[in-house]
Specification:
single chain, Metallo-beta-lactamase, Chain A
Length: 259
Amino acid sequence: MDLRVLGSFGGDSPTCRMTSFLIDGVVVVDAGAITRALTIDEQRRVRHVLVSHTHMDHTATLPFLIENIFGTHPDPVSIYCAKRVLGAVRRHLFNNDTWPDFTRIPDHLEPSVRFHEIVAEQPFEISGLPGGDLEVTAVPVNHIVPTTGFVLRQAGSSIIFTSDTGPTERIWEVANTTPDLRAVITECSFPNRLQAVADISLHLTPATLAIELAKLHRDVPVLIYHFKPPYVDELRSELASAVTGRWIEELVQDRTYSF
């Protein structure tokens, strides 16, 4: 599995792109930076988008992607998300007010976008990827809006993306029982001095991340994303001392990881 980091931050600045990962050039996990990181030709290759939740740093470029590749492929782009996420994406993004409703363009029989509801812990496959079929399993996590992480499995290797979460349980249980787990991507958003903000918004600080990682009983790399841009240097410093005895590193924007 080749995973290209299009954006790895929890906010936007000239050097910090919002959350978005590209698998094998075809599948995007969250849509914070698709059109900011990919050329038009690269965007045209995208056929599937997994959406973990509705916050703007995970959905902002989805409408622009659909407009940019409109009419260039006979099949619609497939967007996958849990039921409550799906409803909110349709209601707030493709509603003809915020952006045209591409589920009915050019018409409802031949739309540019097709939504697929995914059910928690029921795996499904996305076929036709260069690296082989991709199995996806959604796992709910504890965030301020309905949110799922994803178990992504291809060619006998799995990674887990927790998406945005505060202290949670089930996804660590799943991680501990995933035999072919190669890495975990999880978040850290605010420095320790903003613990109250993290608690209210259900995000992690270095201190609470250390507590969460104690629930992970697997010796795999832990890749951290979702730094809020104003606190990047502070978070890097705190993470270096908060989590010890584990392979942990910041996810690097624009890098491609192979699992």
